[in-house]
Amino acid sequence: MKRTFSVLLAFMLCISLFGCSNQKAAENTPVKIDYDSATVSFLGPEGTYTQEACEKFFDGKGSYIPYETVSDAVQALAEGKSSYAVIPQENTIGGAVIDYVDTLISSENISVVGEVELPISQNLLVLPGTALTDIRTVYSHKQGIAQGKEWLSQNLPDAEVIEASSTAEGAKTVADGKDKSCAAIASAGCADVYGLEILAAGIQNNDNNKTRFYVLSKDEPATATADRLAFTASGSAKDLPELTAEMNKLGITLIALHDRPEKTELGNYCYLIECSDCSYEDYHKLTEDSDFAFRYLGSFSVK
User: Fold this and answer.
1) What would the pLDDT profile of 127-146 be if each residue is shown by its tens digit?
2) What is the pTM of this model?
3) Are 73 and 53 in contact (CB under 8 A)?
4) Alpha carbon of 175 to those of 126, 132, 235, 238, 297: distances in Å?
5) Residue 64, SS3?
6) At 192, which helix (H) or strand (E)?
7) Which of 152, 256, 275, 285 is 20 to 30 A from 15 via CA?
8) Buried b (16+ CB within 10 A) or exposed e, 252-274
């Protein structure tokens, strides 16, 4: 009887240790990026700032596949047509890129495996030989329009401003149209890609203009402590102060907080939260006894 009990006890101890070992390993999973064979979907066409972000994060390695919209780029990842997707997340001047934040929130089984911070210099691109007085129409992405709003107001107050799906798409529209009354706000790289000239450089509202991009994957969210950690918390706005107070108590530094309607009732939101000085263990402490519904997105490095 004693021997049977001893064997049973040893067996239970073995299971306990094995389970703890697996849990510990699971809670310390680092991000693994395959740079050389990476296929990366992004908001196209060629020449977008998102493509620049791809090249910066992946060190120019792998292959980059342009898509018409961010939703298409993320869908390509979900369907296995790419191994990573890169999406804009926040801009210094334009704030949260809410359409793309919504795409991330609504995409299940997608994790964040990296972040890129890219300085943004907006330029007015035109067909060769175009003068400022020729311009009647300006094309750009809504972020490019927001970032160049003050310059447009001062220099092209009467021009019609038309939103494009991306800054590069605006440049392509000008190049394809061959109309000198049209211009685009886009990157200097687009001038080379589409055979345009830079009529005015650095027209963004301030010189500290940056955009942050998320690198997404279908892999399980990494849990090893890294530069940043991201998660969503869905629930009532009245509970947010308690959550941020708990973050402060744990020594967690809030980097960004974007709110999107939960679409259930007024006052309920899905908060996309990014922080630093936060371990996976700290994240779990946040979720204890909280009225929010949480979704862990991953821990990752910033380039």
Assistant:
1) 999 999 999 999 999 999 99
2) 0.82
3) no
4) 8, 16, 47, 50, 40
5) strand
6) helix 188-194
7) 285
8) beebeebbbebeeeeeebbbbbb
